[in-house]
Amino acid sequence: MIKSEEQFIDFISNNFNKIKNIPDSWIGIGDDAASIDLSNKNVIFCSDAMVEDVHFRSSHGYESVGWKSIVSNQSDLAGMGAFASAFTISLGINSDFSEKDISLLYKGMNDACESYGGYLVGGDVVNSEKIFISISAIGELYKKNSLLLRNKANVGDVIAVTGEIGEAGAGFFALEKELSNYKKQKESFLKPKPRIHESKNAIKNGIICGMDLSDGLQKDLSRISNSSKVSIEIDLDSIPFDKELNKLYKKDLFEKLISSGEDYQLILIGDMESIKKMSIKNEITIIGKVVNNNTSELIFMSSKKNIKIKSKGFDHFGK
User: Fold this and answer.
1) Three-state secondary-structure class, residue 35
2) I want to staple 84 with a disulfide (CB 3.0 to 4.6 A). Which of 45, 117, 155, 255 is the partner?
3) 281-292 per-position pLDDT tens digit
4) Does residue 12 fall inside a structural domain?
5) Is 289:221 a contact under the CB 8 Å cutoff?
6) What per-residue confidence (pLDDT) applies to 10?
């Protein structure tokens, strides 16, 4: 049993490569703050938090929780056209949180860094009734001064998404209902993959509008629509999804697809030529277009008919 902050620091510092083996010019865990040398580069910051029984269940396993806590930040960076350099972790735990739990949590974090980049350079640990993990991330742009931003959508642009939509939400649904199948969807929820390569290729192909798709297609497209002051038309029939979801959801399939979060895909918006160039090497699907700049609204179509959507998408403060 770990009984002090010093024991905790000693344990994680000696057991995980992405804490031990930081670059020689950096200062990591052990001092009051970390020091990292990024030379003359654009530096990008983000943070994300996960709270027990809000973002995860302890029954999901702490290795998954650790993985997702890092991946959510890697995905936010990818949504800006950046890759991860370093992370700090603020961890709230209680007496029920065992040394094995700590080991699994940091294994998940370490594995995510090994897979998709970044080092674990510091943080804090406090006593908390509810387990929580708060990650702050520092990243670098793939190309100096080239970012993916929400306010760069223009009339005539097309809307594209990477991967399949609704997988993580379906996985969570299957876990909550204790369904024995839907292994792929459960894996998408428990161990999502940030779209690092797609982000790099988007920047390479001159795409300047986009974001991480984590709070649901409807919610995140609304953010782009409002930020760019444009209206966006989405063809629901074009949204890519695994047909197994037809079996999982007996009704309201479209609403489930566009409202469920944690897919960690990317929304990318640009001219048709740039998007098509990307599709040569990436799994990317065009699902809509920017239609005017007089209003900021989302328009959903199916079989050329306007569809009214009841769901408002995921919101951390929603009831």
Assistant:
1) strand
2) 117
3) 899 999 999 998
4) yes
5) no
6) 76
Q: List the one residue out of 313, 77, 317, 109 whose CA is nearest residue 212.
A: 77
Reported as a single tens digit per residue, the pLDDT across 182-221 is 999 999 999 999 999 999 999 999 999 999 999 999 999 9
Indicate whether 162 and 302 sit together in one domain: yes
Asked whether residue 37 is domain-assigned, the answer is yes
The CATH number that applies at residue 246 is: 3.90.650.10
301 lies in some domain: yes
Task: State the virtual CA torsion across 243, 248, 252, 255 in degrees, nearest 10.
Answer: -70
pLDDT for res 313: 56
Range scoring the smallest mean pLDDT among 208-217, 261-270, 295-304:
295-304
CB 41 within 8 A of CB 144: yes
Radius of gyration of the chain (CA): 20
Work out the burial of residue 239: count CB atoms within 10 Å of its CB; fewer than 13 is exposed, 13-18 middle, 19 or more buried.
buried
Q: Are residues 203 and 117 in the same domain?
A: no
Number of domains in the chain: 2
Shared domain for 174 and 243, answered yes or no, is yes
**Among 218, 259, 258, 261, residue whose Cα is nearest residue 55:** 261
Look up the CATH number of the domain holding residue 31: 3.30.1330.10
Report which DSSP code applies to 96: T
- Output the pLDDT for position 29: 75
In the predicted model, what is the mean pLDDT of the chain? Answer: 90
Q: What single letter denotes the amino acid at residue 140? A: E
Domain that holds residue 252: 158-306
What distance in Å separates the CA atoms of residue 28 and residue 305, rounded to the nearest whole number?
56
CB atoms within 10 A of CB 38: 13
